[in-house]
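in:
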């Protein structure tokens, strides 16, 4: 894999003819929001055009699985979490990580102190809200590590609430804890009037269950095409330029996101908050995947293969390549 991509990229060179506007379709993991600011900035500021690319950004949503979209030829490249990508790969979809804009992750479990939860030992007997559609793998690996059953069959286990992508279960007393992202739902909980002093957060990374979140993935078979590999080099270079611009200009980036939100649901105030939190996750990355982070994700998943919902059951092979970022980011960005 690595040799093929390197040869393909080297054969075509880095520069694209000025008239070449190669089309690229990017499928996002979720709706238009600052979680994806770098891509919208790259489009708005002309970074994609400078690379000879005509990029279409497809927002995600609750009924859209990026893995299914790319499997159906609906996108050239997707953003998704590594656990979901590795799970899809083990099930036969040849996804390969070509870049990792998010150095760290924002997934956490947010609990009300009034529920009596202070530590992990207090989870048994409680109801925990969990996102699915590929977001559930870190949770099940964590529970398996703790030896806590998730079928709700007895008081030593937990009840799993399939949480919608909002914070209502916590606010309405349906769950003792819910899944939140530091850059989105956690802010919504605070906005609802619950103070930080009333909450306990279990950050997956801080507890040693860290898994890589938003990365860029393509199909292995596509990377064997030299023209496609060259497009991805230019796409990654422009996208990372967009991310660095967004980090340095958070309020302007938030406005660009709002301008691209066709639903009209996003507010500038919340997107500024989100951009500030997202920047904490991207600031340590220049786009290249750190193999140590990859190994941590794999080790976490394999250390506690959940019988209820396993992401992977064996060591993946060929799940990432640094060839694209080596070519894209080798020079000045």
């Amino acid at each position: 894999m690595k040799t093929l991509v390197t040869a393909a990229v080297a054969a075509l060179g880095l520069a694209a003819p000025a008239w070449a506007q190669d089309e690229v379709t990017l499928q996002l993991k979720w709706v238009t929001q600052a979680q994806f600011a770098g891509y919208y900035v790259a489009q708005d500021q002309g970074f994609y055009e400078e690379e000879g690319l005509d990029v279409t950004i497809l927002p995600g949503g609750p009924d859209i699985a990026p893995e299914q979209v790319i499997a159906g030829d609906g996108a050239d490249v997707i953003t998704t979490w590594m656990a979901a990508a590795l799970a899809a790969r083990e099930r036969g979809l040849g996804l390969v990580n070509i870049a990792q804009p998010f150095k760290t992750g924002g997934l956490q479990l947010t609990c009300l102190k009034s529920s009596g939860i202070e530590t992990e030992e207090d989870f048994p007997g409680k109801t925990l809200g969990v996102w699915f559609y590929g977001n559930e793998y870190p949770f099940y690996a964590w529970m398996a590590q703790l030896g806590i059953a998730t079928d709700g069959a007895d008081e030593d286990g937990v009840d799993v609430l399939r949480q919608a992508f909002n914070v209502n279960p916590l606010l309405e007393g349906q769950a003792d804890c819910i899944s939140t992202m530091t850059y989105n739902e956690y802010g919504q909980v605070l906005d609802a009037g619950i103070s930080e002093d009333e909450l306990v957060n279990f950050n997956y990374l801080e507890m040693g269950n860290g898994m890589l979140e938003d990365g860029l993935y393509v199909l292995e078979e596509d990377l064997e095409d030299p023209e496609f590999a060259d497009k991805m080099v230019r796409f990654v270079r422009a996208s990372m330029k967009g991310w660095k611009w967004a980090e340095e200009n958070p309020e302007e980036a938030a406005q660009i996101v709002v301008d691209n939100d066709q639903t009209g649901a996003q507010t500038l105030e919340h997107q500024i908050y989100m951009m500030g939190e997202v920047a904490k996750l991207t600031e340590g990355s220049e786009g290249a995947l750190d193999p140590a982070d990859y190994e941590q994700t794999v080790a976490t998943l394999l250390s506690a293969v959940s019988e209820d919902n396993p992401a992977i059951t064996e060591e993946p092979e060929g799940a990432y390549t640094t060839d694209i970022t080596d070519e894209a980011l080798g020079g000045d960005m």
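note: Residues 98 and 321 are 6 Å apart (CA to CA).
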